[in-house]
Amino acid sequence: LLGQILDHWFESEPLKATLATDAVIGAMNSPHTPGSGYVLLHHVMGELEGRRGAWGYVAGGMGALSQAIASSAASRGAHIFTEQPVCRVLLGTDGRAQGVVLQDGTEVRSRVVLSNVSPQLTFLELTPQEQLPEDFVRRIRQFDTRSPVTKINVAVDQLPSFLAAPNARDSRPLPHHGCSIHLNCESTHLLHQAYSEAARGHPSSRPIIELCIPSALDPGLAPPGCHVVSLFTQYTPYELAGGQPWDEQARNAYADTVFDCIEAYAPGFKASVIGRDILTPPDLERIFGLPGGNIFHGGMSLDQLYFARPAPSYSGYRSPVPGLYLCGSGAHPGGGVMGAAGRNAAQVALGDFRRL
């Protein structure tokens, strides 16, 4: 249990709770859930420019990272098709993957196919079911994809000024504006309470809020004097109690709760808001293909990690379909902006390709 680990090393409850948020981020569990300690480890095991456990912003926004990868691939001869959805994996008479079929009927032939979408989309929607073992399909259907995350993107006309560290007179960003700011996490009890509400189908009345202001470090993201604020919040259930829909009223009610919480820490925040984009778990699933809205393509629980990700005997990136590989967050070692699953899958595919 994460709570036991933090109690062993730290005395300060706010410090323990702040660290605990990285043990539950993107996960439908609490700091008291067995296995939650691994999620914290997953978030701090890496390094950035030689600094262990450090994270950084991508200049130009996260989309710039995708563009950099695409540019590098194109410079080496890759052809990239966008806005052309894949409808199925093309199989030969021998059952091997031979490419993909696009929604408009175009066939793109290849001797290997790597799928970066979730295991659910890859194997339950894009691959003919008769080509997959029944126990494998059952495992993929049972893969836990619950997500508590609602992402809110906000445009503001002034830099948030927090009571704990008020802005300077010139309104220039201070050091904390360039960091990840955690709100509503003064104690691990608050985190568990927020989880408990969502477990019963109700959005947290005092949500955990991870607030980032990327424009404080990258001014080009917003007009002069303005900023973009990224709110990673939880807990919000995929399905609301009583079968209530995540309609505009429900979205706005939850966002208002989040903004009221921020207002208590940074008076004037609500008045500075000039636009907001609210993405609940069903929205994240519909727009980005994240099953259940899960940023990891599936829970990072101990029964879905290592040799069991996404299924026992299929953690090595190969699938039951020869020539079809899984290279996204649903593969080992899971989600995160690190590229480990993609690199590992590429190495396996290259080795197999040389033998073809």
UniProtKB/TrEMBL annotation:
Cellular component terms per the entry's GO annotation: mitochondrial matrix
Protein name: Pyridine nucleotide-disulfide oxidoreductase domain-containing protein 2
InterPro entries linked: Amino_oxidase (IPR002937), FAD/NAD-bd_sf (IPR036188)
Membership in a protein family: Belongs to the carotenoid/retinoid oxidoreductase family.
The Amine oxidase domain, residue ranges: 34-160
Function as written in the Swiss-Prot or TrEMBL entry: Probable oxidoreductase that may play a role as regulator of mitochondrial function.
Subcellular location: Mitochondrion matrix
UniProt keyword Repeat, yes or no: no
Species this protein is from: Penelope pileata
Gene3D superfamilies registered for this protein in UniProt: FAD/NAD(P)-binding domain
SUPFAM superfamilies xrefs: FAD/NAD(P)-binding domain
Pfam families: Amino_oxidase
Keywords annotated in UniProt: FAD, Flavoprotein
A GO term for molecular function: oxidoreductase activity
Assembly and binders: Interacts with COX5B; this interaction may contribute to localize PYROXD2 to the inner face of the inner mitochondrial membrane.
